[in-house]
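>> received
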Amino acid sequence: MGDFTGFADTDARFFQRLAKHQDRAWFQAHKTEYEEGWSTPMKALLGDVRSIIDSCYERCDLDEPKVFRIFRDVRFSKDKAPYKTHVAGILSVARSAKVTETPAALYFHVGTEVIAAAGLYRMDGPSLVRYRDAVVDERHGSELEAILKRLKRAGFETDSMSEETLKKVPRGFDPEHPRAALLKKKGLGVTFSDFPMGLLTSPKLVGWLADRAKKATSLVEWLTVVTS
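>> returned
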């Protein structure tokens, strides 16, 4: 048995109320509810998944689980609501000195919506250069195509995780390249579809996420190798 026993409820009612009460006094009065029902379980969940999938990663190491802060960065946003309406955490590949963003073996997000995904949401400049060179390389590019096809057949959504997709193929690359769609991406990943909401309060969620994260290992390792 692992440490994760479940989140507080399947409807994320805490976050529904937080969306209506975006003020410090309300959050402080309900902070224990957030920590015990959502933040602490998220850390336990990620730790349990990590212990299952870590051995699947032969070409890289996984970092320690990270739970993101509930506070929004409002410095450059017109929306000044101080709190996120979700709890989110990530299992990333261990970072090297060469990169600022590393692929996620698992990103999990629970609140007014549920998102489970793996991949690299945003590539920094040098990583993006290396990624595009790998896409046009016949060996690496063909390998990536094969990985994405396998994941799509297995039920993963393969076009939903990128932060931004360019309208045109980047300058210097053939606009008619057979992998032009991949060249336009600034991030690449997959999301786990058909999430069963009833699992949010069950320890069985660990197995459901670990099973899908294992299947996404080939994509995460490909991204790690070519962008590092």
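>> The chain has one domain: 13-227.
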